[in-house]
Amino acid sequence: MKKILYLSFITCSILSMQHPVYLIPKENLVYPQRLGRLSVLFDDKGFKVKKGSQEIQIPPYCLENKLRGISREQLDLMISRGNSYLVVNINDHNGYSLRLNGRLLSCTCCKPKNNDKKEAYQ
Predict the structure, then answer these.
(1) 111 assigned to some structural domain
(2) What single DSSP character describes residue 47?
(3) Could you identify which of 64, 77, 89, 114 might form a hypothetical disulfide with 99, taking C-beta atoms 3.0 to 4.6 angstroms apart as the criterion?
C-alpha cells in the first residue's frame, strides 16, 4: 500500500512540474502603444501574451505559419541573431495575433564608393 501511494505521489509531482518559459526580449518585440505594457511568453503549449497578471494563450490560427510548431531552440536562434522580431496585434475577437518580421540589415551594395553620393545614386 505504501508503494502505491509513493508511486502515485511521484507521478502527480512529475505531471505538475512546470516546463520552462521563454520570455521574448523587449527589443525583439513590437506592438501598438494602445495595447499598454505587455510581454510575450513561449512554452511547450505555444505563445502567450502576458498583460498585468493575465496570461492569454494565442491560438495557432492567429500565428504566422513560420511560428506554428516552432521549437524553443529555433525561436531562440532566430531572435538571438538579431535578424528577426515578433509583432503583436489585437484581432477582432479581443485576442492577439503574432507574426515574425525580419530586420533590414545595412548592405555595402547601396553605399557610395567614392563618397560621391550623386554618382552612386544616379
Answers:
(1) no
(2) E
(3) 64
And the C-alpha cell for 78? Answer: 532566430
Instruction: Chunk the chain into consecutive blocks of 10 residues (it has 122) and report each block's average pLDDT, rounded to whole numbers.
Output: 44 53 93 94 95 94 93 89 91 89 66 50 44
CA angle centred on 85, ends 81 and 89, rounded to 5°? 170
Task: State the residue range of the domain holding 68.
Answer: 19-104
Backbone angles phi, psi at 64, to 5 degrees: -65, 150
Contact 83, 103 (CB under 8 A): yes
Q: How far is the C-alpha of 20 from the C-alpha of 68, rounded, in Å?
A: 19
Place of cell 493575465: 54
Is the separation of the CB atoms in 120 and 111 below 8 Å? yes
Which residues make beta-bridge pairs with 1? none
The answer to whether position 90 is within a domain reads yes
